[in-house]
Specification:
By secondary structure, the chain is an all-alpha fold. About 70% of the residues lie in helices and about 0% in strands. The longest helix has 28 residues, at about 20-50. The protein starts with about 20 loop residues before the first helix and ends in a 6-residue tail after the last helix. The model has no long low-confidence stretch (mean pLDDT about 90).
């Protein structure tokens, strides 16, 4: 029964205090900072140790699981006591954008294995750029998920519950670094595809009629990129592509003027891959170790 200000449109985040206090801000920012710094520290330690990938758990995996479980409980408690998340002080698109970049980053990392466009593997996305993306992804992924986790109060709407379930699964994935589960292709694909379910359900709840854009847009990413790493036959992949086309016809037959919605998410994602590639190429130039004569 927390009072909220009236909804002011797409750029407005509704779930925040109408009258925030110094205490409400200090508490959530302090807990977020502690969670983030501990997560960064565990990643740094694990990369310095460079252990082998194992079927079980390393000690730092157990510690990471415990840390994330502790801060999840603290976030629940903090919501009941002071309510506000980070959303009170930052733009709503910062949370959406951070997760979007994470998913785009995954497309780039996975491209040497499954290709980027219908199995095609761009040469530029292999070698030093792919290696740089893999070595640095842990820090960005940790920031994106921990930040988004503390961005929202632990509300009990369907959208919030699904979102927190998704975030907790990604925190679980982040806790299992240097284990075989962390690189299991079915598990990682499931994490990628959950955004389709979450985005579609949230759009349905908002009642703006955009849910087909999220459903078919994220499904297009699966058809173009993700399914080509599953060792499916050409016939199966063609069948999945035809099923996607059937969905487009079914959902947009009466509103052909809105057909451009289908390509919005894929356009943003693949443009994002190009931008990240350019940034990683710059990173390779700046941080590459000089070769000896």
């Amino acid at each position: 029964m927390v009072p909220h200000l009236p909804d002011a449109g797409p750029a407005w985040y509704y779930w925040k205090l109408a009258q925030p206090t110094v205490l409400s801000r200090v508490v959530v920012w302090s807990l977020y900072a502690a969670h983030q710094l501990v997560s960064f520290g565990l990643i740094f330690y694990a990369q310095r140790v460079r252990p082998p990938y194992v079927s079980g758990l390393h000690r730092f995996n157990v510690l990471a699981l415990a840390v994330n479980a502790l801060f999840a409980l603290l976030h629940l408690l903090q919501t009941h006591l002071t309510y506000d998340g980070l959303a009170q002080d930052v733009h709503v698109f910062s949370s959406l954008g951070s997760v979007a970049v994470l998913l785009i980053w995954v497309l780039l990392i996975e491209s040497p294995r499954r290709g980027l466009l219908f199995g095609w593997k761009p040469q530029v996305l292999s070698g030093p750029i792919a290696d740089f993306a893999r070595r640095t992804h842990g820090y960005y992924f940790s920031w994106a998920i921990v930040y988004t986790f503390w961005f929202h109060p632990a509300e009990a709407t369907r959208g919030h519950l699904m979102g927190f379930f998704y975030l907790l699964l990604v925190l679980l994935q982040g806790s299992l670094f240097f284990t075989r589960v962390h690189v299991n292709r079915w598990w990682t694909l499931a994490l990628e595809l959950l955004v389709l379910v979450h985005g579609t359900v949230v759009a349905i709840d908002q009642g703006n009629g955009l849910w087909p854009m999220f459903l078919l847009g994220f499904a297009a990413i699966f058809v173009v990129s993700q399914m080509h790493g599953l060792s499916w036959s050409v016939g199966v992949r063609v069948g999945v592509g035809l099923a996607w086309l059937a969905g487009v016809v079914l959902l947009y037959a009466r509103t052909p003027a809105r057909l451009n919605e289908v390509v919005r998410i894929p356009f943003i994602d693949y443009l994002g891959v190009a931008v990240l590639t350019a940034l990683f190429a710059l990173g390779v130039r700046l941080f590459a170790k000089p070769t000896r004569e």
